[in-house]
Q: What sequence folds into this?
């Protein structure tokens, strides 16, 4: 007697083959992807051209982007491509293997920065002002670097570099005066300092060169038959960037300033501001403009005094320089009527009255020449 | 917490594959016993059923039993298949089917005889016995699948078993 239910429960079960099993799983996977991309009809077409598209975009990015960053004047400080531009310029500088080539690259970069300040001056924001100030300072550093290579150049190359640097400085001064006039006292403190100090330095530089040529003619007469060696020595001291300050933006850390010197400088700057105050209280200038200017000047003097008290003479020196530069070039930042223009011009631009530092420098030069004549006479 | 429950109730690919892993052999067996142990045909029908299930997976209500759902699809698919090719089992064919069963399923002589007797029964009796003992569905699930009353299914199974028992014992 068979227990039929037990036998029925023993009926064997089938097992789906692996081949069919995997084929089904693959179909499920395929269908799932088809479902996922069913709403994106462009994807199959994109999938076919994607590798080519990506390759082309990458190639264009690698070739065109750096070229655009380097060549375009629109890529200025603050632009996200500017670091690429700086990187390429650094490479360009490192590839210049002779002093003459280096000087040329420095000059070329200075010219590029000049073009950039034109673009940056079109923007009016605190960040753009700071970027403009940094670009202006960079021009000064570049022209200084170019001048420093002069010692290693032959006469012809030296002449070319000198002329180029002079041309750049001339253009820089012209543009900065325009920018100062455009922004006025509304410029950020960084830009104000940068403009004032650079305008002041460039003017002094220009004035010094004019004075130098005058004095040079005297020296030539005095030393034509005597000690040429001493003349050459004096020329070495009085020419180039060693005695003529091209930039006061960065105070060299190895320069030691005594408290006495800095206090005297502060007094001189304070006197200069007082003189300027008396001269500017004339008709045509808005009181708000005057208040703003003297507020800034007094602020710098106060900060300089605090720095002197705390023994930070380098900082004090920078602030005094800034105060002097701003007071010397106040006319560029002030907005005044035509009536007052001539008076202010006289007050701020006359070498004897306003730019006392140039007068002092001239006195120093004359003293040195006298000493030199005395030595050559002995 | 509610979101997790909702997420689990929603049909997703992972859940489908879990159910596929669980039921692929059962559905294959279901077809195998109903297409005279033709393995390749049973594989094709199984594939077609699971593809149909996958394509309609979004409409599946996770609160329902997957087993009921997949067996319902399988049964409908099989009926469609029968409709196209015809389903007539003559007494002469039963011997071949039983032999096929013994070879393909590596079954014993006793089971071969049982299968032969089952295939001699009418369609309804054979179906309830296969669903109950091969596919291991309970009476309620069988009733639902065949669209019958549960008590009627129970009675039918009882009758079919009795009939089968008599035939087997008679042949012994």
A:
């Amino acid at each position: 007697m068979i227990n039929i239910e037990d036998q029925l429960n023993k009926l064997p079960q089938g097992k789906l083959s692996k081949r069919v099993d995997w084929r089904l799983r693959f179909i499920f996977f395929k269908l799932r992807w088809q479902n996922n991309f069913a709403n994106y009809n462009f994807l199959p077409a994109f999938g076919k051209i994607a590798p080519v598209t990506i390759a082309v975009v990458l190639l264009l990015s690698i070739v065109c982007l750096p070229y655009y960053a380097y060549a375009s004047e629109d890529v200025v400080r603050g632009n996200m491509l500017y670091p690429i531009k700086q990187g390429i310029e650094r490479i360009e500088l490192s590839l210049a293997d002779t002093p003459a080539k280096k000087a040329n690259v420095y000059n070329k970069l200075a010219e590029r920065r000049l073009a950039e300040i034109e673009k940056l001056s079109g923007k009016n924001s605190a960040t753009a002002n700071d970027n403009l100030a940094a670009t202006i300072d960079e021009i000064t550093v570049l022209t200084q670097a170019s001048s420093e290579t002069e010692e290693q150049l032959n006469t012809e190359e030296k002449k070319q570099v000198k002329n180029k640097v002079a041309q750049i400085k001339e253009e820089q001064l012209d543009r900065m005066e325009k920018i100062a006039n455009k922004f006025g006292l509304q410029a950020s403190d960084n830009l104000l300092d940068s403009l004032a100090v650079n305008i002041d330095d460039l003017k002094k530089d220009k004035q010094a060169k004019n004075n130098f040529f005058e004095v040079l003619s005297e020296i030539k007469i005095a030393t034509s038959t005597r000690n040429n060696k001493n003349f050459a020595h004096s020329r070495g001291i009085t020419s180039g960037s060693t005695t003529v300050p091209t930039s006061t933006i960065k105070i060299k850390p190895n320069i030691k300033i005594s408290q006495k010197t800095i206090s005297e400088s502060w007094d001189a700057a304070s006197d200069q501001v007082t003189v300027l105050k008396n001269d500017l209280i004339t008709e045509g200038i808005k009181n708000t403009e005057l208040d703003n200017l003297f507020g800034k000047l007094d602020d710098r003097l106060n900060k300089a005094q605090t720095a002197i008290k705390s023994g930070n003479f380098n900082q004090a020196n920078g602030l005094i320089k800034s105060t002097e530069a701003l007071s010397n070039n106040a006319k560029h930042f002030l907005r005044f009527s035509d009536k007052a223009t001539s008076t202010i011009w006289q007050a701020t631009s006359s070498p004897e009255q306003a730019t006392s530092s140039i007068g002092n420098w001239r006195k120093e030069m004359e003293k040195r020449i006298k000493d030199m004549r005395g030595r050559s006479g002995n | 917490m509610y979101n997790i429950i909702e997420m689990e109730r929603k049909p997703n690919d992972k859940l489908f594959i879990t159910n596929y892993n669980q039921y692929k052999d059962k559905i294959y067996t279901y077809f195998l016993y109903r297409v005279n142990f033709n393995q390749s045909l049973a594989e094709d029908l199984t594939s077609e059923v699971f593809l149909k299930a996958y394509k309609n997976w979004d409409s599946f209500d996770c609160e329902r039993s997957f087993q009921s759902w997949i067996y319902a699809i399988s049964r409908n698919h099989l009926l469609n298949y029968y409709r196209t090719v015809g389903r007539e089992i003559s007494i002469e064919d039963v011997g071949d089917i039983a032999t096929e069963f013994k070879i393909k399923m590596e079954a014993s002589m006793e089971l071969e005889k049982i299968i032969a007797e089952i295939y001699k029964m009418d369609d309804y009796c054979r179906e309830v016995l296969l669903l109950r003992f091969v596919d291991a569905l309970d009476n309620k699930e069988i009733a639902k699948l065949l669209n019958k009353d549960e008590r009627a299914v129970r009675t039918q199974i009882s009758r079919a078993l009795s009939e089968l028992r008599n035939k087997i014992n008679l042949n012994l």
